[in-house]
Design goal:
The complex is a heterodimer of chains A (121) and B (110).
Chain A (H helix, E strand, L loop, with lengths): L2 E5 L2 E3 L5 E8 L8 E6 L5 E7 L5 E3 L7 E6 L4 E6 L8 E9 L7 E5 L3 E5 L2
Parallel strand pairs in A: 2-11
Antiparallel strand pairs in A: 1-3, 3-8, 4-5, 4-9, 5-6, 7-8, 9-10, 9-11
Chain B lengths: L8 E4 L5 E6 L10 E6 L6 E4 L13 E6 L2 E6 L8 E9 L4 E4 L3 E5 L1
Classes of the chains: A mainly beta (121), B mainly beta (110).
Chain lengths: 121, 110
Amino acid sequence: QVQLVESGGGVVQPGTSLRLSCAASGFIFNNYAIHWVRQAPGKGLEWVGLISHDGRKKYVDSVKGRFTISRDNSKNTLFLQISGLRVEDTAVYYCARALPRMTTVGWFDPWGQGTLVTVSS
Amino acid sequence: QSVLTQPPSASGTPGQRVTISCSGGRSNIGTNTVDWYKQLPGTAPKLLIYSNIHRPSGVPDRFSGSKSATSASLAISGLQSEDEADYYCAAWDDTLNGFVFGSGTKVTVL
C-alpha cells in the first residue's frame, strides 16, 4: 500500500543541524511532489515546503535559508536538512504526498506518521 | 496567527449536524481549492475532503464540504463519537507562494 515513513528526529541542541528522511513505498515516487508539514506541541499544522516531482522547491518564508529539501529518486527517499536549529523548530515533522500526480498545488495524501524534533539546551 | 481562520471548537450530541467554517482571502480560498484534514490525538492528519467537495474513498458521506467566495465549510451530519478530532482546512496561497492551513477546530461529541 502507499506509505511514507519518516525518521531522523531526536533531541538536539540549538544551533546544530539535523537531517530527516521520508521513505516512500507503494507508488511511483518520481511521479509525485512531496511536502513537509510540521506541528509544534499542542499547536496547529504549518506547511514547511515542497519538492516537485522534477526537483523544484518551495519553502515557507520562516525557514528559507535554513531548511533544504532534496530527494533521491533511486532510493524512493525524501530528505529535509535543517541547519541552525532553534527552539521554535521543535515539532513533529510530517512528509505527505501531493495529489494529483505531477502537481504541486493539490491535496496531501497520505501522510507519514511523523518524526519528533526537540530542540533544547 | 493562521492565514485561514477557523473556530477553535465545535460540539454536538450524537446524531446532530456540526458545521466548521474556514475563512480566508482572495489569494487563497478565493482563487484556489480547499482541502480538509482530520487529526485524531497522537496521530497524523488524514485527508477528509479535497478540491472543496470531494470525499476520498472510505470517507463516509456524513462528511461534506462547500466553498463560496473566500470561505469554505465542512459539515458533519449524524455526528458520531469517532468524529471527535481536530479538523484543519488548507489551501494554496498565491501571494505567499505556499500552502496555508487553518488554525484548527476541535470537535467534541457531547
